[in-house]
């Protein structure tokens, strides 16, 4: 039996770490050495992709949590669908912002993370 975690377990570990202020920076350990991370308006690839991703998120909102609707799993691909809620950097609460995250996981590490959400549509962030 392999000690490599299942793709969904890796995706769930990413969510857990990102939700914890003290562990957020450690979520980079779940990625391969040179991952690709895309989200509306930005794309990060290479050795510093995760750090650049966190820096990009910082001015967007003070905090955000995800409510899961469903997971879709197919081999090394894991899709999480649900909604975001939280507080933006203007101090305004938001909720019900739809998201879809697609993870490509190999050998227990995230190779690619594609994030789609309606933060712009909901007025949480500016273009």
Structural notes for this entry:
This protein has 127 residues and is α+β, with helices and mostly antiparallel strands. It has one domain (7-117): Nuclear Transport Factor 2, Chain: A. Helices cover 17% and strands 49% of the residues. The protein is built from two helices and six strands. The protein has helices at 7-18, 49-57, and strands at 31-39, 42-45, 61-74, 77-88, 93-106, 109-117. It has a six-stranded mixed β-sheet with strand order 2-1-6-5-4-3, with helices on one face. Strand 1 (31-39) and strand 2 form a beta hairpin. The protein is globular, with a radius of gyration of 14 Å. The model has no long low-confidence stretch (mean pLDDT 89).
Q: Helix count?
A: 2
What overall geometry do the principal axes of the alpha carbons give? globular
What percent strand?
A: over 45%
Structural class: alpha+beta
- Widest β-sheet, arrangement of strands: 2-1-6-5-4-3
Low-confidence stretches: none
Helix content: 10-25%
Number of domains: 1
Number of extended strands: 6
| SSE pattern, N- to C-terminal | HEEHEEEE
Q: What value does the average pLDDT take?
A: 89
Task: From the alpha carbons, calculate the radius of gyration and give it in angstroms.
Answer: 14 Å
Which fold name fills CATH's third level, the topology? Nuclear Transport Factor 2, Chain: A
Q: What does the main sheet amount to?
A: 6 strands, mixed
End-to-end distance, in Å? 47 Å
Highest-level CATH class: Alpha Beta
Instruction: Examine the secondary-structure arrangement and name the CATH architecture.
Output: Roll
Organism: Halococcus salifodinae DSM 8989
Protein name: SnoaL-like domain-containing protein
């Amino acid at each position: 039996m392999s000690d490599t975690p299942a793709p969904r377990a890796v995706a769930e570990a990413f969510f857990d770490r990102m939700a914890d202020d003290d562990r957020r920076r450690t979520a980079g350990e779940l990625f391969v050495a040179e991952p690709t991370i895309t989200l509306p308006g930005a794309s990060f690839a290479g050795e510093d992709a995760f750090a650049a991703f966190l820096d990009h998120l910082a001015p967007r909102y003070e905090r955000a949590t995800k409510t899961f609707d469903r997971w879709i799993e197919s081999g090394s691909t894991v899709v999480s669908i649900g909604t975001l809620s939280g507080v933006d950097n203007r101090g305004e609460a938001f909720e019900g912002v739809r998201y879809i995250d697609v993870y490509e996981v190999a050998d227990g590490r995230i190779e690619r993370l594609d994030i789609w959400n309606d933060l712009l549509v909901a007025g949480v962030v500016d273009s």
